[in-house]
Design goal:
The chain is an all-alpha fold. It has 17 helices and no strands.
């Protein structure tokens, strides 16, 4: 098996640039789904159930995309066709979802329309996101893989910043941030429109700039039989692949369980937590989401998420300096746990920046470290796309579990959404502790 050649910086950059646009879409979804469905009339104790769909679609879609792309060889590439189709579908749904409350439908019909739109949005985002991870696994050598995932992490966080601040920005330039009860404000609607436009432009750029290897060249560098020889790399079934997965796959998966459950609670309850903590909104009032204070808090959550992403960008540059990657991973998660725990105790909206900068440290590690450990452990196993698709289960399953029990936990902590930030902090700290069991290749 030949050693993969070094790529220059811009080659690595182009490989992941489309991730910038995909992450804008993902940021808009993660920052605004609770806000949108709360505005449409969802009860806080059932809000968690809306968050089952995104990870559920991820766990279904990403392994399929991984396996199918392992077996796909065409003139447009191996992974890129799935990227382009997913992005196109995401653009269409992004123009529909925020308009759910503007169609003159009843509450139940609005919720159904919103849920279906969310399902298709997350399906398409997952379809567009997975190929970027697989492109790095396919074409980047072990020496440069850490740098490649760091670039991907930077672009991911830069896209997040843009997506998070869109509602605040559009409100600042005069677009309405309030609307009739049950209707999503124009500031959010236009944010989704702009995100859709940027997404398709970024994906077109990647499609034009990246040329994937043909089957013969791929086989030379990855040690897998070329499709033209009649032995496709994706022939093994998922159960067999999981049985043969290296221990590192499962050890990192345990860390992922705690971390992604923690992040799910952040995305679900931060809007309510910040509204009550910093704007004194009574979130038990059924009309709370129609108030100007709640919508202003919703914009500010985008700013806090942007601060988190910027902190993540900075921390992503620090992480490679740790000689002991496990120590860097664990420390990052512990800092994130402290950040979550601080949120309910900070009444000043600007001082919340400190908490979300710490959360950003955990996010940087979650984006880069797991794939570095796992792709290194998978070297020589083949089926890279299928394995990374299956590894996405360690992101999706914890979110599904957390979403299903979130309403019960909210009741246990007094129905105060800010207390769910403490729950998130404890989970992240458990993730940091779990790093100790990982054995590096």
């Amino acid at each position: 098996m030949k050693q993969k050649p070094d790529m220059n910086f811009w080659g690595l950059w182009n490989l992941s640039f489309g991730f910038f646009g995909v992450q804008i879409a993902y940021a808009l979804q993660s920052a605004n789904i609770s806000r949108i469905f709360s505005t449409l009339g969802a009860d806080p104790h059932t809000l968690n159930y809306f968050w089952v769909l995104p990870p559920l679609m991820g766990i279904l879609v990403q392994p399929i995309i991984g396996s199918l792309s392992d077996k796909t060889w065409c003139k447009f590439g191996r992974r890129i066709p799935y990227l382009f189709i997913g992005a196109t579908l995401a653009v269409l749904v992004m123009c529909l979802l925020p308009n759910a409350g503007s169609l003159g439908l009843g509450v139940s019909s609005v919720m159904t329309f919103g849920l279906l739109s969310l399902m298709f949005l997350d399906t398409s985002i997952n379809m567009a996101m997975q190929p970027f991870k697989m492109l790095v696994g396919d074409m980047v050598n072990e020496k440069q893989k850490g740098l490649a995932y760091s670039i991907q992490s930077f672009l991911c966080n830069a896209g997040s910043v843009v997506g998070f601040i869109f509602p605040f920005f559009f409100t600042l330039i005069g677009i309405a941030n309030t609307a009739a009860p049950g209707v999503v404000p124009d500031s959010v609607i236009w944010s989704f429109y702009m995100g859709a436009a940027i997404l398709i432009l970024c994906v077109i750029y990647t499609t034009l700039k990246v040329k994937e290897w043909n089957p013969q060249v791929y086989a030379e560098y990855n040690g897998a039989p070329a499709a033209s020889e009649g032995k496709d790399e994706g022939s093994a079934n998922w159960i067999t692949l999981l049985k043969n997965a290296p221990k590192t796959f499962w050890h990192v998966g345990l860390v992922q369980f705690f971390c992604w459950a923690s992040m799910l609670y952040m995305w679900t309850y931060t809007n309510g937590a910040i509204a009550s903590t910093c704007w004194n909104v009574d979130m038990l009032d059924p009309h709370a989401t129609s108030t100007e204070a709640y919508q202003v808090a919703g914009n500010w959550v985008g700013i806090l998420y942007a601060v988190q992403a910027m902190g993540s960008v900075v921390w992503a540059m620090v992480l490679p300096q740790f000689k002991n990657r496990k120590m860097g991973y664990a420390l990052s998660l512990l800092l994130g746990g402290i950040g979550f725990a601080l949120v309910p105790f900070i009444a000043n909206q600007y001082l919340q920046f400190a908490a979300f900068l710490l959360i950003g440290c955990a996010w940087a590690a979650m984006l880069a470290m797991p794939f570095t450990f796992v792709t290194n452990a998978l070297q020589g196993y083949g089926h890279m796309g299928a394995y990374l698709g299956l590894f996405n289960g360690t992101i999706c399953v914890p979110q599904i579990v957390a979403a299903l029990v979130g309403g019960y936990l909210l009741t246990m902590v007094g129905s105060d959404q800010s207390n769910m930030m403490i729950v998130a902090g404890v989970l992240m700290a458990l993730g940091a502790l779990s790093v100790t069991i990982i054995k590096e290749k």
